[in-house]
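agent: user wants the structure for Protein kinase domain-containing protein from Eutreptiella gymnastica. delegating to structure tool.
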Amino acid sequence: MKQICVPSNRQDMLDTVLLQAEQLQQLQHKHLIRYIDCFVHTDEFDATFVVIVMPYFALGEITCLLQSNPRLAEAQLLQIGEQVASALCYLHTLQPAPIVHRDLKPENLLWDGQNVVLTDLETIRFMDQTYCPGSTGTYPYQAPEQIDRDMTSTKADIWALGCVLYALAVRPAFPEIMHTQCRRPDFRNWVLDSLEAKQYSHK
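agent: tool returned. relaying tokens verbatim.
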């Protein structure tokens, strides 16, 4: 389950969260987390929460896979990429309004031993024509337009997917420089140096 805290005096926010949860329940794809149910809960301190019920994944995030198996085979990496791309394709081609996830990262990928499931769908935005407003995402997986707080399109998710696959394939995967210096011009050179050194997980 996931709990989203809503200020007790913000009925408008509560209505928005509930509406989005209901919309997310309509999404059906084998590589998207399934929203089974949602309800409002008030605790003993009068704090209000929207509780979202989802399937349980005992193996947790895909980052746990790296802890037990730090060297991913190329076939496994390709399988992960294909499954996430399939989920994104579903979101990006929805009608009448495509959806942008906006915060794709390894921590938002759950692993059941054979397949990955994209989660944390609360960050999604329905697109208006080609772009959607707002900036979110996580360093270092943000697309340039997200860093610049510009309008976001489905391309931001594709950028993030590339970063995720890179993080899973290259060692060391996104050291601290990625968080503190990702705006610097030498970032591109750091990436190229890692690739030229062939620091892949299957080596």
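agent: one observation worth passing along. Residues 2-53 form one domain.
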